[in-house]
Amino acid sequence: MAQDNGVFLITGASTGIGAATARHAVDGGYRVVLAARSEDKLRDLAAELGGDNALAVACDVTDWGDQAALFARATEAFGRVDVVFANAGFGGPRGFEKHDPEEMKAMVLTNVLGVAYTIRAAMPHVREHAGHLLLTSSLAGRRPLQGSLYSATKYAVTAMGEAARLDLNGTGARVTLIEPGMVDTPFFDNRPERALQAEDIGRAVLYALDQPPGVDVNEMLIRPVSQPG
């Protein structure tokens, strides 16, 4: 397929939702910039997607220098960045006393500061090209979960989505908050009968991108049909 839909940068791209979205993006005509800490997995994914379509860049989203270098590499390779998906993040146990203090710190830095850094780095690009900024929040960013610091970090991402939308108002850029329910992953002990797959979220991302320029899909809450809450 001719690559004519622009350049799509994804953090947390090495596995899961990020990798699935990258595959859908390339199928949809985008060139992709894949960012994560796991450089080997990124390179394998980039090779799968095709060298002309994909660039792999090792990046720790909690490091501003890494984020600035990521966007510099993207523009050097492809000339522009049109779509940015701030997807990097991770979860943890429910129960504040069950959470290792250092892991708590890492979660806040990755899920909150890392997303804020990506937004900051993305702003000039999506503003210049009337592009699209997407953020991975969660169902847990809409209702608090017992003892869940993860839920609190996703509430922060939800707030950043609207704050970024207001910051970009009048530029033609769009902002979409992606809020998955339970996605199939070993992290969950009690999964619903049919959990979401990463590919389900990737399709949802492309749906938001495929809307006409005057349509801004601001929030997408996506749950498996069997999830009770």
Secondary-structure map with pairings?
Blueprint: E1 7-11, H1 16-27, E2 31-36, H2 39-49, E3 54-58, H3 64-78, E4 83-86, H4 101-128, E5 132-136, H5 149-168, E6 174-180, H6 198-209, E7 219-222
Parallel strand pairs: 1-2, 1-4, 2-3, 4-5, 5-6, 6-7
Spell out the helices and strands N to C.
EHEHEHEHEHEHE
CATH homologous superfamily identity: NAD(P)-binding Rossmann-like Domain
What fraction, in percent, of the residue positions are helical?
A: 40-55%
What is the CA-based Rg, rounded?
17 Å
Q: Strand-residue fraction?
A: 15-25%
Mean pLDDT over the full residue set = 91
CATH topology: Rossmann fold
How many DSSP H or I helices? 6
The tally of domains stands at 1
CATH class: Alpha Beta
- What's the N-to-C terminus distance? 40 Å
Q: Report strand order across the widest sheet.
A: 3-2-1-4-5-6-7
What is the global morphology? globular
Main pleated sheet: 7 strands, parallel
Total strands: the figure is 7
Helix/strand/pairing category: alpha/beta
Proper CATH architecture? 3-Layer(aba) Sandwich
Any low-confidence stretches, pLDDT <50, length ≥5? none
What report would you give on this structure?
43% of the residues lie in helices and 16% in strands. The radius of gyration is 17 Å and the shape is globular. It has a 7-stranded parallel β-sheet, with helices on both faces. The mean pLDDT is 91. Helix 1 links the parallel strand 1 (7-11) and strand 2. It has a single domain, classed as Rossmann fold, CATH 3.40.50. It has 6 helices and 7 strands. The protein is α/β, with parallel strands linked by helices. Helix 3 (64-78) runs parallel beside helix 4 and helix 4 (101-128) runs parallel beside helix 5. It starts with 6 loop residues before the first strand and ends in a 7-residue tail after the last strand. It has helices at residues 16-27, 39-49, 64-78, 101-128, 149-168, 198-209; strands at residues 7-11, 31-36, 54-58, 83-86, 132-136, 174-180, 219-222.
